[in-house]
User: Fold Phage protein from Bordetella trematum.
Amino acid sequence: MHALNKRFLLTRLLREAADPDTPPAGGAPAADTGAATPPTAEPQTTAPSWRDSIQDDGLKAFLDGKGFESPGDALKALQDLEGKTVIPESAEAYQLPVPEGQDGAFAIEAAKWMHEAGVPVAQAQALAEKWNAYQAEQAQAADLARQQQGEADVAALRKEWGGQYDANLELGRRAVRAFVGQGEDAGPTLEKIESALGAAETFRLFHRIGKHLGEGTLAPEGGERGGAAAPADPDAARAARMFPSMSK
Assistant:
């Protein structure tokens, strides 16, 4: 019996040695040393930014100021910029705007200047539009100033002629009808004369012409008209030279 118990005891000891989870006979369970130690956390590493590879501090500051999130954003911005700043192959590609009433000769010449200077198409067209608007404003201001000056000249002439204003004006109109034409046909010529002489001097000129026309003394300088002598008035003589057909 003693031998049997001893054999069973040996068997149990062998089993306990093979199974570490089985506590020894008559004792407390063995301590679990493996589960009590927490795993060691791996150190966190941050991936380097694509800007960190740029060595030039000025270029890096430029990129930071633009706010590009990736190299693709920077390349897209570069592509857009290149599309806006491309230089055309020829001056004809600019197609600069031409103001109404102009023949476009200046626009053609300006396009050559733009191409020589390497100006992109969009910028060239914007400059041309600004220039055309400026020229239109200048022309409008000049027309207004000329109109105001003409009104002032006529007011001064009305004061100078006094009660003879209407009669003198009619003599001038008669000269215009005889030498220049009637209605709209006389407009362009009168505008040229008025631009050169001013409104008051134009009125005076045609008044004198009309006066000599009524007196029958208007003839080319050195010539004769019905036996009359050449006009002594220099304005009338100039009118005779300007309109020689009236003496024929």
